[in-house]
Write a structure and sequence with these properties.
This protein has about 120 residues and is α+β, with helices and mostly antiparallel strands. It contains four helices and four strands, in the order H-H-H-E-E-E-E-H. The chain has a four-stranded antiparallel β-sheet. A hairpin with a 5-residue loop joins strand 2 and strand 3. The longest helix is centred in the N-terminal third of the chain and has 11 residues. The protein is globular, with a radius of gyration of 14 Å. The N and C termini lie far apart (about 40 Å). InterPro entries: Knr4/Smi1-like_dom, Knr4/Smi1-like_sf.
Length: about 120
């Protein structure tokens, strides 16, 4: 019996470090923890990006590449959720920002946990 690869399992530390190297960025410790926790966004209507192969439209590398090259998202922001051409991004300092298909917005959260509480829990 062959085991199937599960792209939606929590990644290992080594897989996360490999993703950082491939993207040329350092993930904030909160984002590393988010990835290791399986990227749970509760009952939110969007899917978080995944660093493991075979994740289809949730592939972090494809999302980031497109956002950086075509949507104007700065390279220091990691777009960890894509939603119809809009992005939730995390900065090196751990601040989360919303990047609209029209460009930068003023929507910001001081941390991933604040973002999660306000966007994934309270906006349901």
């Amino acid at each position: 019996m062959t085991s199937e690869i599960d792209p939606f399992r929590p990644p290992t530390d080594e897989e996360i470090t490999s993703a950082e190297t491939r993207l040329g960025v350092m993930f904030h410790p909160d984002y590393r923890a988010f990835l290791k926790g399986g990227g749970d966004v509760g009952n939110a209507v969007f899917d978080p990006a995944v660093v493991l192969p075979g994740s289809g439209y949730c592939d972090l590398f494809e999302i980031a590449q497109y956002a950086w090259e075509n949507a104007g998202v700065p390279r220091d922001l990691v777009p960890f959720i894509e939603d119809n051409g809009d992005y939730f991004c995390i900065s090196p300092s751990g601040e989360v920002s919303y990047w609209s298909h029209n460009g930068a917005t003023s929507e910001r959260w001081p941390s991933l946990s604040n973002w999660f509480q306000q966007v994934c829990v309270e906006r349901r």
